[in-house]
Amino acid sequence: MFKYKTDEYQATLLRYFEEEIMGEGYFYGLAEKFPEQHQRQKMIYLARVERYAAESVKPLLKKYNLEARSDCDLHEIGKKDIEKSVSMGWNGFVGYMVERFPEYMPEFKGLEAMAPNEDLVELQILTEHEVAAIEFAKLEKVGDPNSIRPLLAYLERA
Ligand SMILES: [Fe+2]
Q1: How many Å lie between the centroid of ligand 1 and the Cα of residue 34?
Q2: Which pTM was predicted?
Q3: What separation in Å is there between the alpha carbon of 130 and the centre of ligand 1?
Q4: From ligand 1's centre to the CA of 135, what distance in Å?
Q5: Which residues are CB-contacts of 60 (< 8 A; sequence separation ≥ 6)?
Q6: Rg of the chain over all Cα atoms, to the nearest angstrom
Q7: d(CA 22, CA 152)
Q8: Nearest of 97, 105, 113, 99 to residue 147 by alpha carbon
Q9: By the 8 A CB rule, do 8 and 107 touch?
Q10: Distance from the CA of 42 to the center of ligand 1, in angstroms?
Q11: Ligand 1 is a single-atom ion; what residues have CB below 5 A from it?
């Protein structure tokens, strides 16, 4: 039983790490597609947040000898959803983020719940990136001119 749980935890950790790298590729791809400069810049910040989140759990991958696929391969996978997202238009895409991102929160909380206590510091940094992304999306949706604030605060966290 314990062994099974450990395996599930480590497999989930690896999967979530890889999904952040995919997300990085996805947002960098979107940064090339959205027409306006502010939109592109916001996608770059989201990509950086994904990278920061992934880097925060990298030591845990090493600890458990988990081997992720290459950044290049993961970026390619992440880029598959770009056209669909761009086709929503900026407002549609922001609305999609507001709807969709909170659905990931239970997954990150679930990963924390599976983890040994000593891994929680790193995992909480991973979870917090989703909080920052959700806050950004909500602010962007209401037209806050400083909507990137939560992303910057996350990237500048000590
Ligand atoms: Fe993410």
Answers
A1: 19
A2: 0.95
A3: 6
A4: 13
A5: 13, 66, 119, 122, 123
A6: 16
A7: 21
A8: 97
A9: no
A10: 14
A11: 20, 23, 50
**114 alpha carbon to ligand 1 midpoint, in Å?**
19
The Å distance, Cα 99 to ligand 1 centre, comes to 14
Contact 19, 71 (CB under 8 A): no
Tens digit of pLDDT at every position of the chain (158 positions): 456 679 999 999 999 999 999 999 999 999 999 999 999 999 999 999 999 999 999 999 999 999 999 999 999 999 999 999 999 999 999 999 999 999 999 999 999 999 999 999 999 999 999 999 999 999 999 999 999 999 999 999 86
What's the CA-to-centroid distance between 7 and ligand 1, angstroms? 22
Report the C-alpha gap between 19 and 22 in whole angstroms: 5
Q: Hey, what are 66's tokens?
A: 């988990």
User: How many other CB atoms sit within 10 Å of the CB of residue 67?
Assistant: 7
Q: Which domains does the chain have, with CATH numbers?
A: 2-151 (1.20.1260.10)
Q: How far is the CA of 16 from the centre of ligand 1 (A)?
A: 8
Question: d(Cα 44, Cα 40) in Å, to the nearest integer?
Answer: 6
